Amino acid sequence: MTPATSAPPASDALLGVYRRAPMEFVRGAGVELFDADGRAYLDFVAGIAVNALGYSDAGLERAMREAIDGGLVHVSNLYRTAPGERLAEKLIERTFADRVFFCNSGAEANEGAFKMVRRWARTTGGTAKHEIIALRGAFHGRLFGTLAATDRPSYRAPFRPLAGGISIIERDLGEIDAALNAETVAAVIVEPVQGEGGVRVLDGEFLRALREMTRTRGIALILDEIQCGYGRTGTFFAHEQLGFTPDVLTVAKPMAGGLPMGAILATQAIGQTLQPGDHGTTFGGGPFVSSVALHVFDRLSDPGLLASVSINGAWLGEALQQLAAASPKIRAVRGIGYMWGIDVVDPAKDIVARALDLGLLICSAGDHTLRLLPPLVMERAELERGVKLLSEAVG
Ligand SMILES: Cc1ncc(COP(=O)(O)O)c(C=O)c1O
Question: What is the rounded CA–CA span in Å between residue 76 and residue 213?
Answer without folding.
Answer: 40
